[in-house]
Amino acid sequence: MADIASQMATDTAVYKTLLESTKAIPWKIDWKSMTFAYIGPQIEALLGWTPESWVSANDWAERMHPEDREWVVNFCVAQSRSGTDHEADYRALTKDGNYVWIRDVVHVMRNADGEVDALIGFMFDISDRKKTEAKLIDMQKELEALSFKDGLTGVANRRMFDSVMDVEWSNARRNHQPLSLVMLDIDYFKQYNDHYGHLQGDECLKTVANILGSATRRTRDFFARFGGEEFMLVLPETDQAAALKIAERCRALICDEALAHEKSGICSNVTISLGVGTIIPTDTDKLTDFIESVDKQLYLAKQNGRNRVAAAS
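RESULT FIELD:
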């Protein structure tokens, strides 16, 4: 018997040494008293709290970020009562007032009668993993933002225009409100590129986009690059008279900038032509038809001499 007892003591010591040599922090809580029967010494290196300071489950709960505490405690208690093994991620408070991300993996132990007897588990430091996850989330958000942004000018792109136009079209139809659209492009832009070069042409596009992007004052007004030297201005709840004023202001702003264009067919500076359309859409109207009608107005503005605004009567 003495040999058996000695062997058991040796085995226990070996298991304890193995547990305490890992980065995972082992612990055990007695279910009835809700007190810690054991917690690994690694806890002090990670959080700064000595093993002796972990007396009850209340110490575990109090050393948790306030935003995590309620749901984690409620979740773990409910799972434990039902005898279900579980895990939870939360921010644990360090002794010096900082927080470390912890993953607690919990196993529920039952007695011979099938009642919950104890909880045993491991705490893992997952701070590095959480930092990586946060970086990936930020990268995903950045990629999503970039997917709706024109790479050259920095304004919204065609994809974003399509999304916004769909929403505003639905809003206008539902609320019986006017929706105006301004389509514009830079006059003689091919000649500009041929004469000044494509790099200077890119700079011209950036300048025009920057000027027109700030031409509107309302939060829902939306400006985007449609493609090439074409841009779109979406004006929700705007009648034709107001839309024409905005379009004329855009035309004047570009003229006032006085960007040199020696190869323009109408003057010595960069100018723009604009087409304007306004509609209160009904169920029988189609968005594609409306955009096409505005494109026709832009064509008329060009046909009638450029550097002007055209709108359907």
